[in-house]
Amino acid sequence: MLLIGVLLALLGFGTTPAPAATSATLTVAAAIQQQTGATGTVSGYVVGQPTATNTVVRSNFPNDYALALADSAGQTSTASMLYVQIPSGFRSAYGLRSNPSLVGQQITVTGKLAAYFSHPGLTGATAFSGGGGSDPGDPGDPSDYYAGAEGKTGAALKSALHTIISNQTKLSYDQVWNALKDTDQDPNNANNVILLYSGRSQAKSTNGGDPNDWNREHVWAKSHGDFGTATGPGTDVHHLRPEDVSVNGIRGNLDFDNGGGTVAECSGCAVDGDSFSPRAAVRGDVARMIFYMAVRYEGGDGFANLEPNESVNNGTAPYIGKLSVLKAWSQADPPDAFEKRRNQVIYDNWQHNRNPFIDHPEWVASIWP
Questions:
Q1: Strand pairing report for 105-112 and 82-85
Q2: What is the pLDDT of residue 23?
Q3: Is residue 228 domain-shared with residue 363, that is, in the same domain?
Q4: Are residues 266 and 355 part of one domain?
Q5: Tell me, what CATH number does 81's domain have?
Q6: Is residue 7 scored above 60 in pLDDT?
Q7: Residue 74 domain boundaries
Q8: What's the pTM value of the predicted model, to 2 decimals?
Q9: Span 9-13, mean pLDDT?
Q10: Which of 77, 109, 134 is the last residue of a domain?
Q11: Residue 14 within any structural domain of the chain
């Protein structure tokens, strides 16, 4: 019997072979599907630290023990993330508490394709590399741009960001027409722009003041602070967006809040006597534009000090509400590819400044807890 067992072993029978290693570098999506226990190499973008099966934090990292990878630096769904265990020998270089700037960076990891936190994962890693280069489909956060804000919170963070983003090229109101044709271009039709509230794709050439034309919507209503269309907040394309003339008129200078009746030509929008609510897909965009304006315009450059508050019917006061609703909108609707591209185009082609709340949505809660 012993001889038979030896012969079987030599022939490969009667033993359980180890899972075969995968040779090609895997995407995160492929690694999630190949949780076989085999050794694999995975390339992806660091999107945060897993702390539970369905929880990944993007800031205030508790330790250096794990990170989450995704195929896009802007991914927010944990179902599309791979949880990577970081062995002790790699924690000083790849742990997120020690290296928070790794978020958004592309890295490559080799390890065992096996669950971690009861979630598709990579354990027992034997090699890490990378940490440079951003997602080509997601411009992300140029780390040196925000160097002056590093480590700051609350009022100090707001002040640092104000200094950073105030270094901008200012446009005339006429220049805004051409800027919007660039910043809000339909990704599927270069001849069109996407209208903010209604979501309609419309020819760039139909800008104007007639019914069904599109015009320049001031998301921070220009009467809230009475800044008009003078160069400054009135021409800042970080809060100016193309919109249908009639929908723009319905929004008027209303504050933002939930609820209200339906809006013609604007599916998903709602309006009542003192507030307007955009469609769900752009509520976060609207909130982050308001937060940008509140940080950019602090009253020191000849314009009013703009601030969000908890009121509606703010009239000509330099306030807009409701803050609690805007914060909830920003959290529920994180930055998407269109919004990130828009931020990059403004930075590259027009104003040469950024909306920090698109690059770092977690800063909303730090400044307005």
A1: unpaired
A2: 61
A3: yes
A4: yes
A5: 2.40.50.200
A6: no
A7: 21-134
A8: 0.65
A9: 44
A10: 134
A11: no
Q: Are residues 162 and 213 in the same domain?
A: yes
**Residue 92 within any structural domain of the chain:** yes
Q: Are strands 82-85 and 121-134 parallel, antiparallel or unpaired?
A: parallel
Regarding whether 333 and 227 lie in a shared domain, the answer is yes
Report the pLDDT averaged over residues 164-190. 96
Q: Is the pLDDT of residue 140 over 70?
A: no
User: Would you state the structure tokens that stand for residue 327, as one six-digit string?
Assistant: 């914060």
State the average pLDDT over residues 344-351. 94
Res. 49: pLDDT tops 90: yes
Residues 250 and 348 reside in one and the same domain? yes
Instruction: Work out how many domains the chain is built from and give that number.
Output: 2
Residue 152 lies inside a defined structural domain of this protein: yes
Does a structural domain hold residue 335? yes
Convert the pLDDT of each residue in 303-326 to its tens digit: 999 999 999 999 999 999 999 999
Please tell me whether residues 198 and 229 are part of one structural domain. yes
Same domain, 85 and 159: no
pLDDT digit string, tens, across residues 53-63 = 989 998 888 99
Burial of 362 (0-12, 13-18, 19+ CB in 10 A): middle
